[in-house]
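Q: Please design a sequence for this.
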């Protein structure tokens, strides 16, 4: 992380914007022997600095001592040599999460710009980070900005949080049936990153949403749905290179959010802190009347730009009771987690090492993990739907679909053990906050629904696989039975004729029928041909039995083994 130690922690407010995405398995080419190989220029592998006074080392240490062993492997390399070696054994495997940070020499020159006609906000960038959950093709881009402008009021902070996370036009304004570029839009008019040197703008990765309205082409959906230019600018490592060409997409990358990024924000405000001390009174059912204090808390927690999006007092209280964590409310610190935000409301005098830094390191890491869980669940559900597509018409799954379903289930089991962690710390407050995040971000319910869906599909795949296998083996068995029966009848007929019938009356039998002899053949020739035919039928019967065994071994064992070896 960039900047002097404690600058970020002491800021009046902090604003971390998280952009989740999915990527193709070969989008980032990682060298398994060298995990520090960066995904793109300007990105650096986030190992632990040697200097024990560096900010990244101090933050890594906090995370390492707070989380348990499983979570520690995701967010830091701090730990024993034994723990590190487990991640890279004789068969190197990509760890569950690789972490990178953007070039610090560039980030220290950057500002996060939010501009409207009447007001402009500029926030210093503290760091830009990238979390890649490579085995599951999930990525999260984290942009950490800070506000050290004491002139910004709570109303300004609300606008920063709301408009700073909106990276696409939510709708196209119209007037009299035509596109109106002067109409009301919920996002900022300009949003992006500015890189300055010696007070001069060197690069401007700023999206002009008003210009987008004027130049909009409804037929070009790629441009219409592209996020603000700085998103792909960071992801591709172009910011800081002088190349300011906007990317409307990146091959192999798919956004996993709507027009808003997930928001993690710490706000130091004395009035909010005082309201937090009164939160139990404010949320009492008997006080279901309008309250400016409760309005402020609600609008801040849900990142509303001005007034609360819910104006009913009783409903406000009901919702806030579900999303607020009140363990330290009596001392003026409130935490809250919603579907799209995680907030810390505290006092400007809050202890840095006890309140501020834990939220910016440990709790933010929790949010990133839970957000990755949520995106993973949606990805698994989509993959499952793609696998079985068309099965309703056929009434069954074919071999390819069954194989893909089995592989999907195996990845899901791996995900359960590596990412979908039930507990990540033994600290009571950490356990409670993690549970609140999973609940409010919908992970708990989604996991249960996905597990039921995959279990049902896995059972169907097993049934269909066994049915297909049984059908084929049954055909092998039927053919073998008929061949054995033919051999038996042939042997019985020729033997009977040999005993009870004169030689000149012996029929040509099956040997003549199969064309192995002609009708004028001698008796000895007939017997020799019949014996050869019996041996042939018995040999074919044995061959079919062997093929049936080989097929069973292929379906049950060899096919899966080869796929794993050559993956």
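A: Design:
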């Amino acid at each position: 992380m960039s900047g002097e130690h404690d600058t970020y922690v002491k800021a009046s407010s902090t604003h971390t914007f998280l952009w989740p995405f999915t990527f193709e398995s070969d989008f980032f080419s990682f060298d398994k022997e060298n995990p520090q190989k960066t995904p793109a220029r300007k990105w650096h592998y986030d190992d632990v600095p040697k200097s024990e006074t560096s900010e990244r080392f101090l933050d890594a240490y906090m995370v390492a001592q707070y989380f348990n062993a499983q979570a520690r492997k995701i967010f830091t390399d701090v730990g024993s040599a034994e723990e590190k070696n487990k991640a890279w054994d004789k068969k190197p495997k990509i760890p569950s999460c690789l972490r990178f940070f953007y070039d610090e020499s560039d980030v220290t020159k950057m500002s996060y710009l939010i501009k409207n006609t009447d007001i402009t906000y500029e926030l210093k960038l503290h760091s830009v980070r990238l979390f890649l959950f490579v085995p599951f093709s999930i990525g999260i881009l984290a942009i950490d900005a800070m506000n050290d402008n004491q002139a910004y009021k709570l109303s300004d902070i609300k606008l920063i949080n709301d408009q700073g996370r909106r990276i696409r036009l939510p709708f196209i304004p119209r007037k009299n049936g035509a596109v109106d570029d002067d109409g009301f839009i919920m996002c900022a008019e300009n949003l992006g990153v500015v890189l300055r040197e010696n007070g001069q703008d060197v690069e401007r990765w700023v999206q002009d949403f008003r210009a987008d309205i004027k130049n909009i082409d409804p037929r070009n959906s790629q441009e219409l749905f592209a996020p603000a230019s700085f998103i792909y600018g960071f992801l591709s490592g172009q910011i800081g290179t002088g190349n300011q060409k906007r990317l409307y997409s990146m091959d192999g990358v798919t956004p996993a959010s709507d027009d808003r990024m997930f928001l993690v924000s710490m706000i130091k405000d004395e009035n909010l802190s005082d309201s937090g001390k009164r939160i139990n009174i404010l949320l009492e059912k008997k006080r279901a009347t309008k309250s400016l204090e409760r309005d402020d808390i609600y609008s801040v927690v849900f990142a509303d730009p001005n007034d609360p999006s819910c104006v009913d007092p009783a409903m406000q209280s009901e919702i806030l009771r579900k999303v607020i964590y009140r363990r330290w409310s009596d001392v003026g610190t409130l935490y809250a987690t919603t579907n799209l935000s995680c907030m810390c409301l505290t006092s400007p005098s809050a202890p840095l090492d006890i309140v501020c830094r834990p939220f910016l390191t440990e709790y933010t890491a929790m949010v990133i993990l839970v957000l990755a869980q949520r995106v993973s669940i949606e990805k698994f559900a989509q993959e499952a739907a793609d696998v079985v597509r068309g099965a309703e018409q056929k009434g069954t799954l074919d071999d390819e679909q069954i194989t893909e379903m089995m592989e999907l289930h195996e990845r899901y089991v791996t995900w359960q053990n590596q990412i979908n962690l039930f507990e990540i710390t033994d600290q009571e407050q950490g356990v409670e906050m993690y549970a609140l995040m999973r609940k409010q971000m919908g992970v708990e319910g989604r996991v249960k629904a996905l597990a039921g869906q995959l279990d049902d599909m896995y059972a169907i795949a097993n049934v269909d696989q066994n049915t297909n296998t049984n059908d084929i083996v049954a055909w092998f068995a039927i053919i073998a039975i008929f061949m054995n029966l033919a051999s038996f009848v042939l042997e019985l007929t020729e033997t009977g004729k040999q005993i009870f019938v004169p030689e000149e009356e012996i029929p040509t039998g099956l040997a003549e029928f199969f064309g192995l002899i002609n009708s004028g053949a001698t008796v000895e020739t007939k017997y020799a041909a019949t014996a050869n035919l019996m041996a042939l039928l018995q040999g074919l019967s044995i061959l079919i039995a062997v093929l049936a065994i080989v097929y069973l071994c292929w379906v049950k064992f060899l096919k899966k083994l080869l796929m794993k070896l050559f993956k």
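Q: Thanks. Anything notable?
A: The chain is about 50% helix and 15% strand. The first helix runs from residue 55 to 66.
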